[in-house]
């Protein structure tokens, strides 16, 4: 990024636990340097409702587990120059994908909400409240192009910092043996 223009950075939380964002916050004092060099334009740690256009770098935490995740991932790709799968759920599906061997999520929901004792005996599916589940949880690169992978559950703060600094310096991520993987 040029010295006169701050980078526009976003972080996104899809199907996951938010541990990657907690590790991002664990960069501690570096967050002050980050704020001098970049503007956080979208994140679960900021109150922004719509994913913006013209984002330089987006870190995507979590797997694609429901239709809202899928839609947001597509918006991220359409509006970001660089997309980084951020953490093992985004990279591989990890814990979020543990439901996959159980089969059709509709059958699971039916067993829990309809067949079991439940006050209403209906699957919660009110539009705008409960997003429909995907048939299978998938990592981010299965639905959009990913430019780099930042593995870890969660990635340690120093690894996140190295990746962010490299990207803010306008350099492509290259494999320097620091567990950053590239698309």
Give a structural overview:
There is one protein chain. By secondary structure, this protein is of the alpha/beta class. It has a single domain, classed as NADH:ubiquinone oxidoreductase-like, 20kDa subunit (Rossmann fold). 31% of the residues lie in helices and 22% in strands. The longest helix has 13 residues, at 67-79. The model has no long low-confidence stretch (mean pLDDT 91).
Give structural attributes.
183 residues, Rossmann fold, 6 helices
Quick gist of this model?
The protein has helices at residues 19-25, 30-37, 67-79, 88-92, 105-115, 157-168; strands at residues 7-13, 38-42, 55-61, 64-66, 80-86, 133-138, 148-150, 181-182.
Topology of helices and strands:
Layout: E1 7-13, H1 19-25, H2 30-37, E2 38-42, E3 55-61, E4 64-66, H3 67-79, E5 80-86, H4 88-92, H5 105-115, E6 133-138, E7 148-150, H6 157-168, E8 181-182
Low-pLDDT ranges: none
The coarse overall form would be elongated
Number of helices: 6
What is the CATH-assigned architecture? 3-Layer(aba) Sandwich
The portion of residues forming beta strands comes to: 15-25%
Q: Briefly, what CATH class?
A: Alpha Beta
The H/E string reads: EHHEEEHEHHEEHE
- Structural class by SSE content: alpha/beta
Number of domains: 1
Radius of gyration: 18 Å
User: Strands across the major sheet, in which order?
Assistant: 2-1-3-5-7-8
| Main beta-sheet annotation | 6 strands, mixed
Distance from first to last alpha carbon:
21 Å
Task: Briefly note the CATH topology name.
Answer: Rossmann fold
Helix content: 25-40%
Overall pLDDT confidence:
91
Number of strands: 8
């Amino acid at each position: 990024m040029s010295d006169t223009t701050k980078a526009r950075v976003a972080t996104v939380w899809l199907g996951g636990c938010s541990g990657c964002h907690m590790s991002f916050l664990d960069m501690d004092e570096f967050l002050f340097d980050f704020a001098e060099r970049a503007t956080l334009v979208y994140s679960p740690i900021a109150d922004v409702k719509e994913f913006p256009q013209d984002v330089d770098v987006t870190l995507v935490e979590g797997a694609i587990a429901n239709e809202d995740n899928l839609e947001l991932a597509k918006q991220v790709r359409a509006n970001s120059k660089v997309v980084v799968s951020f953490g093992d759920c985004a990279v591989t599906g990890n814990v979020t994908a543990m439901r996959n061997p159980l089969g059709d999520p509709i059958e699971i929901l039916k067993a829990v909400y309809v067949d079991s004792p439940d006050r209403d005996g209906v699957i919660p599916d009110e539009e705008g409240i409960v997003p429909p589940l995907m048939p299978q949880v998938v990592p981010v690169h299965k639905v959009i192009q990913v430019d780099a992978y930042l593995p870890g559950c969660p990635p340690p703060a120093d690894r996140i910092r190295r990746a962010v600094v490299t990207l803010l310096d306008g350099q492509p991520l290259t494999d320097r043996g620091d567990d950053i993987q590239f698309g």
